[in-house]
Records
---
Amino acid sequence: MPHRQRGRQHRPVRRGAGLPPIRVPVEEPVTDTTAPSSPVLSDEQRHVVEQDVDARMLVTAGAGTGKTFCLVRRLAFLVEEEDVSAADILVLSYSRAAVREVRERLSRAGSAAQHVDVRTFDSYATRILSEADPDGSWQTAGYDGRIAAATHLLRTDENAAGFVEDLQHLVVDEVQDLVGHRAEFVKALLELAGGGFTLLGDPAQGIYGFLLEDPVQRRQGAATLYAWVRERFAEDLTDTTLSHNRRVRDSRAGVAHAQGVALSRADADFAAVHRDLRTSLLAPECHLGALDDAWPVIADLATAPTAVLCRTNGQALRLSAHLHERGVAHRLQRSGLDRVVPAWVAGLFTAFDTTRPSKEAVLAHLEAALKQAPIAAQQAWTLIKRMDGNRGNRLSVDLGEVAARLAQGRVPDELVAPAPALLVVSTIHRAKGLEFDNVIVVDPGPPSGDLADEAEETRLLYVAMSRPRDLLLRLELPSELTRGVYKNPEIDRWVKRHPGAQHQFKGRRYGMEIRGDDVHAEDPAGTVGFTAPARAVQHHLASTRLTAAPVTLVRSDEQDAGAHQRYVVHHDGVAIGVTSQSFAWSLQKEIGRQHARPDRVEDLRIDCVETVVGSQAASINNDMGPFGVWLRPRLVGMGRFVWPKKGQPA
Ligand SMILES: Nc1ncnc2c1ncn2[C@@H]1O[C@H](COP(=O)(O)OP(=O)(O)OP(=O)(O)O)[C@@H](O)[C@H]1O
């Protein structure tokens, strides 16, 4: 790929009334014909990349210094230069986003290393358990339970230990997030690993300590794991750092990086670092101002990759609604746990007369279906083919097997990658590991003063402020936007309540966060909750541009089998879905069983139309084929309740 350089041209950006113009670097890539086909490693990066396969290495490096970049190049080095088989290397990372990032960079590099197994800790733990203890009780356990069970198995079962002992090289990314069960899992892996390892991380970016209950451990983050690695492998550990920031192209975007070293120390003075970071953020050159003036500037900036980073998803939801109302196109970043299968996949299940269409027929269908999609037909075929499990037959695909894998949620990460967007509204947690030309940080205010929170809040602010390449700005959210917005722990959703209504139903509830699984998937739309020809609704979902379109939930006269209130999803007067039981349950918990239900829920949008797998019986009964695969609208937003008028039945 050509080395991309950036011109230093600037153009004035339109700002809200009363604000002085600021100058923003323009995205104008200049092709350098003398540049090598892939970026040149710096000396310190080469030292990391070109260690032999047995090396045991701990790389501690600040944000943007090229950890992911080095990881990808190290894999290529091991496979291409050291002749290590891709099957003998394992890469583990904390988040699905990071795994996806590594896989994408490997596949872009086109190296033989793209066949290396890259997984999250959860996925690898599940793999060990399903091979070494297929009938174990771990199947009903959550993520932490599975990781603890896999750790136990590694320490007690020779079979399980064999997986790891045979590896020639283990790479662990995002080491700073390894606390609790995951830290123990990695310790067990490292103790068993016969070959070398490469551990990469930035202690200043450890932001998952909140998963721990003990405040002292939370404050320490992964410091205990780092200390253990240094002691356990003291004899032959290569303990190295990367010091040069490769991300920042404009010095205004780099103000946070100086704080990285201070923040990564085990005895960091978090209060002082937070103060320094926030002082930089409060500087006049970062000033974007209040939202009413700032939104046109945000819209202008979004001609280049831009992110607005919020401390909580409650803020992100409210800000997203505000931007939508003003016509500012953007994508609200989903949780890494959401596995959203794109709509084109459902199209495969109705396109052919056979359950095993040929590669040729599938490619011809995909060429036509993917004209507007950010994925090529050949790539789409490869992903689908990976799910049918029949590697022997490359010339056709078994759609029954693909449907079964979809139903189990066992889908390639590349298939569920979110569509690219120039403007992203995200929480800081969801933006970790990502980079943008422009980053607008919602001012978090001073830290609360709680010791454990102070460490976490400081690391979060550092992560947010270290994402930009060119421009770092600060946004103040008006208090009326976030007033009354709380996380309801019982339903694990953000809600908005009128003042005075936090603890009891004094006033009426204002609204509730809507989530992806709030639309019923078990039956095709039109067959429960409202009546419409199911195939016609599917055609409408497949052929209408619905992303970001506003929708309303309208209270149905029907209740479901569990006597839960149903709502019909309306887009532009057309019914396109019905709410699920999980929505009804959460609504009941938020409002209270004894109170009237809202007539409507408004201020919602369609995040995308996604492929889901429901009941095969419902599919056959409704003439929708044998697989039970169809489309449903995925909704997003902080829904606003519209209550029945006094005297009307509720
Ligand atoms: N030697 C290099 N030449 C050119 N670009 C580089 C080089 N090393 C890294 N980069 C670029 O610098 C940016 C930051 O690199 P990378 O994302 O790997 O950093 P990181 O340490 O993983 O960051 P973070 O911890 O903040 O997520 C990327 O755009 C990457 O392509």
---
Amino acid sequence: MKAYPKVSKICCIGAGYVGGPTCTVIASKCTDITVTIVDINESRIAQWNSDSLPIFEPGLEEIVKSRRGQNLFFSTDILKAVKEADLIFISVNTPTKNFGVGKGRAADLKHIEACARLIADHSTSSKIVVEKSTVPVRAAESLSRILKANTKPGVTYQVLSNPEFLAEGTAICDLLNPDRVLIGGEDTEEGQLAIAALSSVYEVWVPKERIITTNTWSSELSKLTANAFLAQRISSINAISAVCEATGADVSEVARAIGMDTRLGPKFLQSSVGFGGSCFQKDLLNLVYISECLNLPEVAEYWQQVLNMNEFQKSRFAKRIVETMFNTITNKKITLLGFAFKKNTGDTRESPAIYIAKYLLEEGAVLQIYDPKVDSKQVFADLSGTLSVNLSEVVTVSKNPYDAAVGSHAIVVCTEWDEFTSLDYERMYSRMLKPAFVFDGRKILNHKKLIDIGFHVETIGCKLNNIDQSKYLFSCGEGTPRRTQEHRMRFAKLENIFLTSLHWDNIDELPEACLTVQEIVNTGLTLHGSELLFQSADKILILNELSVLHSDCLRKSNSKSTVYFSEKQEIYTARAQSRKF
Ligand SMILES: NC(=O)C1=CN([C@@H]2O[C@H](COP(=O)(O)OP(=O)(O)OC[C@H]3O[C@@H](n4cnc5c(N)ncnc54)[C@H](O)[C@@H]3O)[C@@H](O)[C@H]2O)C=CC1
Ligand SMILES: O=C(O)[C@H]1O[C@H](OP(=O)(O)OP(=O)(O)OC[C@H]2O[C@@H](n3ccc(=O)[nH]c3=O)[C@H](O)[C@@H]2O)[C@H](O)[C@@H](O)[C@@H]1O
């Protein structure tokens, strides 16, 4: 068998989340190959050539900087790179079609086709064309037909399928140490030679036994199947999380127990607010569409259910936020921690945070959003379009989580960033209105500790023992400080005093209590009682350093709910802004 000439020049069309990292790693491992990554998006290429790369991926920047200008180039001169290359990766986006036949389900292959026509029109030498993008089964065949129908004399093409399995956030590790590299090609001598040529590129750093070869269609279908199985696992554990919440079981315990079965394994069993990202939904929709086209409605329905479960999970979580906050979040500030679809990436495509944010905004909430890698421009772009609210009035993007917590009623964790586990939640709590809530959509926080601080905590897949940790002192008559000491209650930790009547016996020591609290800490003191009591209390409490808030338990007007806490909280909020002694 003849050997294919050694690959010495690679062109990658599409400088996105796949093309950029993949070909950067190839350039770093195969320093004798010149790798040029091209894109029609000029600003993206300019960013790749700058100090601020267009995507965040741990470890990527170092490798780009070490190879850029050596054997790694980013360019908008697509024609030149295509002409010079022996091997061309097509890594363009293949989004879900939003028009015409297959709208909302089929993959839109217009970018792939544009690449094929461009290669056919401008190539003056033979090429191996590699489908890196995720495509429907038999897409390589269409690619091949376009190329061959436009072939110039003396130019030949071999089309390979080489799907990418990297996950964002761990892309560099995945590329350096892949579980497998899959290459599909034609079952002809030329096809096998092309497979061998691409394989030789990977063999520089990937053990040969991890490079598997197959026919093109199996390769294409394996990619869709891998994503479908991964998404199915998440939807399966999320379905169980709903059962756990209804029964008192804990989904983390269930995941641990089943994950130790070597047949199941522990990965992808993290129950969450739902999966996001640019591929799971798109690829599942594609699989559903292909199954329908093949007249396999049962198969289509089966995979559709994985997506339905994901929608259910997101909406269940969003509804729970509103229900727990006394069924109304109108004008309530809510802090969203995380906006990316997972940690260690700035990518927000199909992020569950977008769904949650839109839901809360539609319910009238005011959002204060913090994500370490997503900027405000991206947040506003993602939230624009569908809502009936003026976004700039109801959404702020903060530069740190503590600012995002000021005046907020609730924290909602949407992304599992490591830094969220080590925040100073006492500090967050002190900046929030009470009762203060945490909704942990990623199950990453120390829930017991949060409850001890005073938060009401809700999470996915288990019921938490939320007991009201607030301490109430009923009346504050003569001898109260002494008696609180006898009962080992620290006066300075006092946050609530309930005044039962205006009689001097009940309020005698109130000024001293307030002075003590003011001197030592404090985040504020709430007095509970009737309006009448407060009119008198106003006259005896004039403190510069301490906010004393009123909670008028008797007033029922203006109440949207008969729930005591709801009413208390509304009045508390209103007073908090207007009354300071
Ligand atoms: N994002 C991910 O983690 C993974 C994505 N994939 C698949 O890889 C493909 C690419 O995905 P991403 O890199 O995330 O997309 P992306 O949207 O980040 O990047 C695609 C790039 O292709 C460029 N492009 C489109 N048409 C072009 C043309 N005719 N000429 C030159 N450039 C063109 C776009 O300007 C864009 O910069 C998709 O099929 C996706 O399903 C596969 C594995 C992982
Ligand atoms: O084709 C693709 O685009 C890629 O899709 C996924 O990678 P990615 O979407 O980048 O990230 P994942 O780690 O798979 O996470 C996807 C979503 O599922 C969520 N997830 C993941 C794991 C888990 O246990 N629970 C869970 O909710 C994540 O938070 C995230 O929202 C696959 O993992 C990659 O193998 C594949 O190459």
